[in-house]
Specification:
Helices cover 64% and strands 10% of the residues. The protein contains 14 helices and 8 strands.
Length: 442
């Protein structure tokens, strides 16, 4: 906006001693009409909250003797969630700055998991405290400030029109009587002068209240630290997967092609060499060794990041891993489509590591791999009919597998009683990358 009373409440040149205040206001320009609307909305919200909380607490307290009111009293602890969401939206209306939601997403779907997480979060209790503060302390201040800032200039401006309607006198601000139209006009001019003067304190109070919302209802230091860790972990995962793909591409297009050319050259040289000489025998041995190195390189490339995972998706990549397993493995998937690359890579890694454990440690005769998607979670189960007794402390790779799955917020569950069978379940919260199609078994 332009100069005058539309200017920002605080400017970048504000003293350094007001650093906390500067953080609250975010150095945004707050127009007085927005400040008035904001304080009016928060004041009315607090008034309704005050009445609603008093009635709910009274009803819950009366019914608590019959144990019927206990759920109502327990639910009152969560009343801060919708109130905080509304306050964050109002703060954004005031100055355009978004207040992040401090709550985490539950690890599991369902109401029970959501309630368990919400009751354990500090943000829930901060929001409840702010709700009580708004309902019993802040709303009278909000309404008093906005009423004083608008009522005083409004009464002065209305003096002349009211005098014209009455014809004799008008009582201005319930303090003095005005009988002449000239005096009423002076009151109107005073009201016009007060509008910009009262606009700045009004905007200042609104900005201070929005700063309190950001401090109490936004992410705390711990939540911000956790959020930054999650974001940095996601960046590391993306960088790790990109590096794996680069190595796989370089080996496939570089070293592998040169080995293929070398093997062809050795084959042609063997054909030109005398068949009964020592040179032919050495060329044959070199040709065989080159073939073995090429096969090992292909296995290494497939282990880094299989091309079939990128081209065909998780079910085909797991089927390819099952075909390579020395233990007969059946695969069955019901997925709605492709998933984000980190999710597919984590799922494929879990399957290959679990099948490697089956081949090395279980003594199983058969194994199975099943994958499905429901309630926003990708679930993969690897089962075998082996001897069981899988122990992460014995170096079976389960600890590394759990760490790899945790990178994408997944969980690993192992059921392996002595004597078997063994079931490894991986659950990863995710959404289909292509929007999702009807699930199909493959």
């Amino acid at each position: 906006m332009g100069g005058g009373w539309w200017e920002p409440v605080l400017r970048p040149g504000f003293p350094r001693s007001a650093g906390r205040w500067r953080e609250w206001t975010r150095w945004r320009a707050v127009a007085p009409w927005r400040a008035a609307g904001y304080l009016l909305a928060t004041g009315l919200t607090g008034l309704l909250l005050c009445a609603g909380l008093l009635v709910s607490a009274a009803v819950g307290g009366v019914l608590a003797a019959l144990l019927v009111g206990l759920p109502l009293l327990a639910a009152l602890a969560l009343v801060g969630l919708p109130v905080a969401a509304w306050e964050r939206r109002l703060a954004r209306f005031l100055d355009g700055g978004r207040v992040p939601d401090p709550h985490r997403v539950p690890d599991r779907p369902g109401l029970a998991a959501w309630l368990r997480l919400r009751y354990r979060e500090r943000a829930t209790w901060r929001e409840l405290g702010f709700t009580l503060l708004s309902a019993f302390v802040l709303w009278p201040v909000d309404l008093a400030v906005v009423g004083g800032a608008l009522a005083v200039p409004g009464c002065l401006l209305a003096a002349a029109p009211l005098l014209l309607l009455d014809g004799e006198q008008v009582k201005v601000l319930k303090l003095w009587e005005v009988h002449s139209l000239g005096t009423a006009g002076l009151c109107g001019l005073a009201g016009l002068a007060l509008l910009p003067l009262l606009g700045r304190p009004l905007a200042l109070v609104a900005a201070a209240r929005a700063g309190l919302v950001r401090r109490l209802l936004g992410p705390g230091r711990e939540e911000r630290r956790i959020g930054e860790l999650v974001r940095s972990r996601a960046r590391l995962v993306d960088a790790f997967e990109a590096e794996r793909r680069r190595i796989e591409r370089d080996l496939h297009d570089g070293a592998q092609q040169r080995l293929v050319a070398l093997r062809m050259t050795l084959g042609l040289a063997r054909l030109d060499a005398p068949p009964d000489g020592s040179l032919a025998a050495r060329l044959t041995e070199a040709h065989r060794e080159a073939g073995e190195v090429l096969a090992e390189l292909r296995e290494l490339i497939n282990g880094i990041h299989p091309r079939v995972l990128t081209d065909r998706g998780l079910p085909e990549a797991c089927a390819d891993a099952a075909d390579r397993s020395p233990v007969p493995v059946s695969t069955r998937f019901a997925l709605p489509g492709r998933f984000p690359a980190p999710v597919e890579a984590a799922g494929w890694f879990a399957v290959t590591e679990a099948l490697a454990n089956v081949a090395k440690h279980s003594g199983a005769g058969t194994a199975s791999v099943e994958g499905r998607y429901a309630d926003g979670r990708l679930t993969i189960e690897v089962a075998d009919d082996g001897r069981g007794g899988a122990d992460p402390g014995r170096g079976t790779g389960l600890t590394g597998l759990a760490d790899r799955v945790a990178v994408v917020d997944g969980t690993l569950t192992v059921s392996s009683p002595p004597g078997g069978p063994t079931l490894v379940r991986v659950e990863i919260p995710c959404t289909p990358a292509d929007g999702g199609e009807p699930a199909r078994w493959t």
